[in-house]
């Protein structure tokens, strides 16, 4: 690992391109993998930017 995070990201992208050819192919692979795992019952977190806030329960 490098001290510079930007350099780490560049190296990671270079490794992915070497394996998959380009990043779009990698993204397609990961989406297919996620869909397959979701069909098998694996739960994924939904980090929605507009979450509904739950009302707090009154403490009595």
Tell me what you see in this structure:
- The protein has 60 residues and is mostly helical.
- It has a domain at 5-39.
- The protein contains two helices and no strands.
- The model has no long low-confidence stretch (mean pLDDT 79).
Key traits:
60 residues; mainly alpha; 2 helices
- Overall geometry: flat
Radius of gyration: 19 Å
Total count of helical runs of at least 4 residues: 2
* Helix share, percent: 55-70%
Cα-to-Cα separation, first versus last residue? 53 Å
Instruction: Give the mean pLDDT.
Output: 79
| Beta-strand proportion | under 5%
Strand-and-helix sequence, N→C?
HH
Short description:
The protein is mainly α. It has helices spanning 5-20, 23-39.
How are the secondary structure elements laid out?
Layout: H1 5-20, H2 23-39
């Amino acid at each position: 690992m490098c001290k510079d995070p930007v350099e780490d990201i560049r190296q990671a992208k270079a490794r992915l391109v070497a394996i998959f050819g380009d990043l779009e192919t990698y993204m397609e692979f990961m989406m297919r993998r996620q869909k397959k795992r979701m069909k098998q019952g694996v739960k994924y977190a939904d980090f929605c930017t507009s979450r509904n806030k739950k009302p707090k329960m009154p403490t009595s």
